[in-house]
Amino acid sequence: MSVLYTAEALSTGAGRNGHVATTSGHVNLDMAIPTEMGGSGNGANPEELFAAGYAACFHSALQSVARNQKVAIADTSVGSRVHIEPNGEGGFVLSVDLEVVIPELEHDAAQALADAAHQICPYSNATRGNIVVNVTVTDD
Fold first, then answer.
1. Bridge partner list, 97
2. What is the DSSP secondary-structure string of the chain?
3. What is the pLDDT of residues 56-71, one digit of tens each?
4. How buried is 38 (Cβ within 10 angstroms: 0-12 exposed, 13-18 middle, 19+ buried)?
5. Which domains does the chain show, CATH number per domain?
6. How far apart are CA 139 and CA 43, in angstroms?
């Protein structure tokens, strides 16, 4: 299999309380533990970055599926909530809720597109069987 693209990032400092930057320069952020986890909250955190990436990737997959099925969609959006929680064994696990909005498309047809996008999205394929991912279509 040939690689289509490689993203590269470097974390420096103290991990969740450090700095992260990509070689492209598009991401260059101070990181901070969220206040809910006992940190200052004065910076981005890995879960926010994962949520942003998953939402954008899934949204592209949704649009690709619609194009391939010749279904006209407009003004769509995908929201992502990434949760971190203890796994009961001293570590942590992630879970994701994706909220898909496809205005002016009947709910079952919109859910079918979202389900198809879940099958081709690289983030969905990377997480499948590893973490819980819920895909829900809402009307707004």
1. 81, 134
2. --------EEEESSGGGSEEEETTSS-EEEB---GGGTS---SB-HHHHHHHHHHHHHHHHHHHHHHHTT----S-EEEEEEEEEE-SSSSEEEEEEEEEE-TTS-HHHHHHHHHHHHHH-HHHHHHTTTSEEEEEEE--
3. 999 999 999 999 999 9
4. exposed
5. 1-44 (2.20.25.10), 46-138 (3.30.300.20)
6. 32
Burial (CB < 10 A; 0-12, 13-18, 19+), residue 95, is middle
pLDDT value at position 79?
A: 98
